[in-house]
Amino acid sequence: MRYYLGADLGATKTHTLIVDETGRALGFGESGPANHESVGYDGMFQSMYSGMEQALRAAGVTKEDITGAGFGVAGYDWPSEMEATASVIDQLGLSAPYTFVNDAVLGLVAGSEEGWGVVVVSGTGSNCRGWDREHKREGRVTGHGVLMGEGAGGTELMHRCMQILGYSWTKRLPKTALADAIVAYVGAKDLEDLMRGYTTNEYKVGADAARLIFQVAEAGDEIARDLICWAGTELGEMANAVIRQLEFENLAFDIVMTGSMFEGGAKLVEPMRETIHQLAPHARLVRLRVPPVIGAAILGMEASGWGVTSEIRRTMNESVSVLKTTSVR
Question: What is the tens place of the pLDDT at every residue in 162-189?
């Protein structure tokens, strides 16, 4: 029996999975953050190693039994980081072949029917990547949010929201119920106090507040609705950039949506869909419904030359959720 390891090295946590050659999930581990930009490469290794040890123990196998491994690495954004990332993975002492990608790609591999297409991430931040059928050509955005004018995750949405509240305060825009919602959220006295405290860094308004925009929009506020429409359009434009890079305009392919912002539903998704379909009318928008670490395990299989069939995918999807739930109790 062959065994494969997959690891999703995230900015807030790391998930590690062991599966066998049929796709049956055998062991799961959860450890700390592994983005080298926040915890350094030493912290990345500690989270990787802890997650691997947990998953191996749960599966009842050793690292010598691993036939192939796949890693999705948060913070792995540029080829210049390849050597450093590989050196950390090498410290795990695996004898099996492995591959690693930016962690956004895991959602694409796990969520698309055939493991190729485009993935759009909209959670705390945002990202967009794409792969062709053969996994030879990759399309991407920078993944650096406000700095590079890319949106929109919760961070970018709130950045834009606070600009709009500034416009409202200066009367460039009409009043909006968003003002009352954010004033209450930070504990400000009024909109002017919110502007003062926000611009002096006394009041912090981060991605967690994005849910308030959806609540205010649901209550009928037009400016909040327009703000969500802006976010959906921005996500669509990110996808279109990747579609152009990969020349997918006339193809039928999956666009996998992953991240908490998509829980906002049609108000966000429909503007995104409309924007994409103007360029790629045959694109299919699908929501990621399985843990991204499945994508890492699939990459581990591919790294060793093991063919991943639809049956293997189905077995993995069905078995991993139960295993993950029982492992973290």
Answer: 999 999 999 999 999 999 999 999 999 9
201 vs 114: CA distance, rounded Å: 46
d(CA 179, CA 145): 24
Cβ burial of 26 (10 Å; 0-12, 13-18, 19+) is buried
Instruction: Give per-residue burial for 44-67: e unless 16+ CB within 10 Å, then b.
Output: bbbbbbbbbebbbebbebebebbb
| Amino acid, res. 261 | M
Under a CB-based contact definition with an 8 Å cutoff, are residues 115 and 307 in contact? no
pLDDT of residue 326: 55
Domains of the chain plus CATH, in order, are 3-103+292-327 (3.30.420.40), 111-289 (3.30.420.40)
* Whole-number Å distance between alpha carbons of 109 and 141: 18
Which stretch of DSSP H or E encloses residue 179?
helix 177-186
CA distance 4 to 147: 38
Task: Residue 140: count other Cβ atoms within 10 Å of its Cβ.
Answer: 19
pLDDT of residue 325: 56
Ranges in the chain, pLDDT < 50? 328-329
The pLDDT tens digits of the residues spanning 195-254 come to 999 999 999 999 999 999 999 999 999 999 999 999 999 999 999 999 999 999 999 999
Can you give the pLDDT at residue 329? 38
Give, rounded to a whole angstrom, the gap between the first and last alpha carbons of the chain.
28
User: Is residue 193 packed enough to be buried (19+ CB in 10 Å), middle (13-18) or exposed (0-12)?
Assistant: middle
pTM of the model: 0.90
According to DSSP, the β-strands at 98-102 and 138-140 are unpaired
Phi, psi of 158 (to 5 degrees): -75, -30
